[in-house]
Design goal:
The structure is a single chain. Helices cover 42% and strands 19% of the residues. Strand 2 (33-37), helix 2 (43-51) and strand 3 form a beta-alpha-beta unit. The chain has helices at residues 15-28, 43-51, 89-98, 110-124, 127-130, 148-158, 173-180, 190-197, 200-209; strands at 2-6, 33-37, 59-62, 78-82, 101-106, 136-143, 164-169.
Amino acid sequence: MQTVLIASSKGGAGKTTVATHLAAQFAIAGKRTVLIDADPQGSSTRWCQRRAGLDSAVLPIDGTRRGWEKAIPEDTQRVVIDAPAGAMAADLGAFLDHADAVLVPVIPSLIDLEATVPFLNSLAQQVRVKKGKLPVALVGNRLKPWTSASQQAVEQLEAWPYPLVAQLRDSQAYVLLISLGKSLFDYHAEQILRHQADWAPLLRWLKKTA
């Protein structure tokens, strides 16, 4: 069972977008998938509920309550954790203990970049991260590759000590799909396939950490 934690100390960075799409990709690939929703807003849970009628449904578990680990079915193959917004590493406790990999979404703005640095510093103090036993990677989110701002943000992210494993382009499709309980991976239109390609490096990285 591989467990992936999606976390950021900056609200609005796209944790739920990354968590739901990753869970959908796992489920569509035939993996029995659980999504732990540790964010009190419950957006990931509502996404799972909307998706419940599909063959690639994802089981939601309330991660805001103690003992969430015991609710994970024994036959689960993939677990995605949508961490609480605004949490630093010290607040993530059991989520970090159970994680096999951590993904940190970052939006290309100066405020978001500056806000992410203290969070990454707090992650760096975790024993498993220090020893290289808990891999951490960055996900550039809502990028506009044609703008100098996004290009500069990517350059800065690539200079940070953690790998930048995905550059997700800004698209209203994410908002619409999440509201429907769907994901990019549920469709095969040419335009959608281009967005799916943005995820390929991330998925390859996760395979290496499994």
